[in-house]
Design brief:
single chain, alpha+beta, 29% helix
């Protein structure tokens, strides 16, 4: 899957393990690296498991259209499909099999 980053700063943080550890701490950095490996290995967003871990789940409300992957509670890796237009199924849901590019938005506790 193609992966982009919402900001240059975020891209720099994700560029090296050292920056991930400095920004998020050693434990969360290790988990972020595992989640990124899963994302890179997936051909599309549907191939990223909805079961723990990584528990890919679609968000609602003001984060509609975004997805999260569990890190260490309460932190999540936030991402959004990078498709124009966004592919939808007949039932109105996002067609995850056609989402082959994403943008990493943040690592945060949004609860």
């Amino acid at each position: 899957m193609d992966i982009a980053f919402a900001t240059t700063k975020l891209q720099k943080i994700f560029n090296t393990e050292k920056e991930l550890v400095r920004t998020f701490g050693a434990e969360i950095a290790r988990i972020v690296m595992r989640r990124m490996a899963i994302l890179r290995a997936a051909a599309n967003l549907d191939e990223v498991s909805h079961l723990p871990p990584p528990r890919r789940h679609e968000l609602t409300g003001d984060r509609k259209g975004q997805f999260a992957l569990d890190l260490k509670h309460p932190y999540r890796l936030l991402l959004q499909p990078n498709c124009d237009p966004l592919p939808y199924k007949d039932d109105g849901g996002i067609d995850l099999k056609r989402v082959t590019a994403i943008t990493i938005i943040a690592v945060e506790d949004y609860h």
